[in-house]
Amino acid sequence: MLFYSIYPLAVVLEEEEGTKKPEQWREIEVEGKTVLVTVNSRGEQVIARLLSTDPADYLDPRWTPGNVIV
Fold first, then answer.
1. In the chain, how many domains are there?
2. In order along the chain (70 residues), what is the average pLDDT of each group of 10 residues?
3. What is d(CA 34, CA 52) in angstroms, rounded to the nearest whole number?
4. Which of 10, 29, 55, 67 is at 20 to 30 A from 16, Cα to Cα?
């Protein structure tokens, strides 16, 4: 069976409302850079977005979304 949708698979297969734990978003500063992070199930802070006006910061692989803040 094929399923075509314009929505991402994560949205389509999302659990019912009320049973899903809300995401925790935090804005923190690391090494002088402001990043928006989420907390995963293991309690690690995962980068969701880099908030910077310096274009060189976006070329640094340390600030890639999905990386874990140590």
1. 1
2. 83 68 83 93 92 95 92
3. 7
4. 67
